[in-house]
Amino acid sequence: MPGSVLRLYRCCTKRDRENKCILNSSVTGKLSSRELLEELVSHELRVTSRNVFYSFSSDIQKVMGYKEKYQPDESDDMYYVDVDLEDIPGSVVALLPVYSRDYMMNLFCTADEILKTGHIVNPSDNSEHSLLGIINISQRTVCSWAYSMREFCIQADGLKLNPLNEGDDIVQSDEYVEELIRKYLFQSLPENNIRRFREIIQRDFERYKLKKTYILDRVMTDLWYKT
Hints:
three-stranded antiparallel sheet; about 230 residues; alpha+beta; four-stranded antiparallel sheet; 10 helices
C-alpha cells in the first residue's frame, strides 16, 4: 500500500449487514469542530450515541479481541477500509483518530465556541463535559475506551466495507499510524487558541485538585500542535 494509506478494521454489526456493509451516518453533511466534538462525546458514551460515527481500529488484534468477547458466534464479521489520507474519498466525511490524546487536544483548539465556554455539551442529553475529563484516559470518557482500542471514528456517506479474508490483514506499527495522522490530520493552530486551551486545562486541574500532572505537562509542550 502507498505510504499515505491507513487501513482501519471494523467488527461488522447486524445493522451493518442489513445495510449490505455500506455505512451511512445519520448526518452526512460536514460538521464544525464543535459539532464533531459534541457528537464524539455522545458516541463514546454509547447510550447516547446518535449514529453519526462508526468505530474502527488501526489494530486488527484489538478488533479480534472485541469480536471474541462480544460477538463470538459470528464468523464473517471482520471488515476493513483503506483510506488514502492524501486523497480522502467523499464517502469518508470525517476521520477522527480519537485514541490520540494529542489529536484530541489539537481538535479542541480548532473549536472557538468550545474554547469560549470551556466545556462540551452532549447533544443527546445536554450534559456538560470538561475538556480535561475527555482527554484523561484514566476516566471512562472519550479517550479511555478509544485509547485501549486504538479507535478511529468515521462519519460516513456510502462507505463500503471490504470483507477481511485470510491473508488480508496487515501489521501497522503504532509509529506508522502516528506519523500518518500527524502529517495529514493535525491542523495548524492560532496562538490565541493554544493559550486559551492551556488556561482551561490549568483551571480544571486546580478546580479538581488533581495530583498527577502528566496531561498538564503535555499541554504545556508543543508536541500536540506542531506538524
